[in-house]
């Protein structure tokens, strides 16, 4: 069955000129691009998106980074989209990411790691409407 997941091309990847190459990898892997937009988050919006990490030591850094420049939030669809996107992304730390993964190819560090992907169905159900209205998801 087809499934939707939420992803963000992060500020490091946009600044480094990798956004189009990342979209090409996602497309090659068989994902349909349901929705995409270009935005710069406020710190409040970034903190709200990452609220589950609020108690982590890196939270301030994460919020500053995610509000530091243009991002491309998007909704992707395919069979097994959530797990397959996580595989395509590679490990959070690019130093530990497998060859051929987006983070291996395009990430800078554990914090500036090029791409976000929902880690579970419940997460996607929070993250998709955080950025997109129903009329943008047809
Ligand atoms: P993401 O999948 O978007 O969700 C949480 C983010 O926190 C994660 O990607 C990383 O970019 C970031 N993160 C995780 N661990 C660390 C860390 N040790 N230092 C800085 N950022 C981190």
UniProtKB/TrEMBL annotation:
Query: Which residues are the active-site ones?
Result: 116
Main subcellular location of this protein, as a coarse class: cytoplasm
GO terms for molecular function, please? nucleoside diphosphate kinase activity
Quickly give the catalysed reaction. Answer: a 2'-deoxyribonucleoside 5'-diphosphate + ATP = a 2'-deoxyribonucleoside 5'-triphosphate + ADP; a ribonucleoside 5'-diphosphate + ATP = a ribonucleoside 5'-triphosphate + ADP
Q: Where does ATP bind?
A: 10, 58, 86, 92, 103, 113
UniProt KW Cytoplasm keyword: yes
Cross-referenced SUPFAM superfamilies: Nucleoside diphosphate kinase, NDK (SSF54919)
Pfam families (alphabetical): NDK
Enzyme Commission identifier(s):
2.7.4.6
Group of enzyme by EC: transferase
Q: Which domain of life is it from?
A: Bacteria
Q: Which residues form the Nucleoside diphosphate kinase-like domain?
A: 2-138
What keywords sit in the KW lines? ATP-binding, Cytoplasm, Kinase, Magnesium, Metal-binding, Nucleotide metabolism, Nucleotide-binding, Phosphoprotein, Transferase
InterPro entries associated with the record: NDK-like_dom, NDK-like_dom_sf, Nucleoside_diP_kinase, Nucleoside_diP_kinase_AS
Locations listed in the record: Cytoplasm
Give the record's family classification: Belongs to the NDK family.
Per UniProt, subunit arrangement is: Homotetramer.
Q: What is this protein called?
A: Nucleoside diphosphate kinase
Source organism per UniProt:
Granulicella cerasi
User: Which gene is the coding source of this polypeptide chain?
Assistant: ndk
């Amino acid at each position: 069955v087809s499934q939707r997941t939420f992803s963000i091309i992060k500020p490091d990847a946009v600044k480094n000129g990798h956004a189009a190459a990342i979209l090409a990898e996602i497309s090659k892997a068989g994902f349909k691009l349901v929705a995409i937009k270009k935005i710069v988050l406020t710190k409040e919006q970034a903190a709200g998106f990452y609220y589950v990490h609020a108690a982590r030591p890196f939270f301030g850094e994460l919020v500053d980074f995610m509000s530091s420049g243009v991002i491309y939030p998007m909704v992707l669809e395919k069979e097994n989209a959530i797990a397959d996107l996580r595989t395509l992304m590679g490990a959070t730390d690019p130093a530990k990411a497998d060859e051929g993964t987006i983070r291996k190819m395009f990430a800078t560090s554990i914090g500036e790691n090029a791409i976000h992907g929902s880690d579970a169905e419940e997460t996607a159900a929070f993250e998709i409407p955080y950025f997109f209205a129903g009329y943008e998801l047809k």
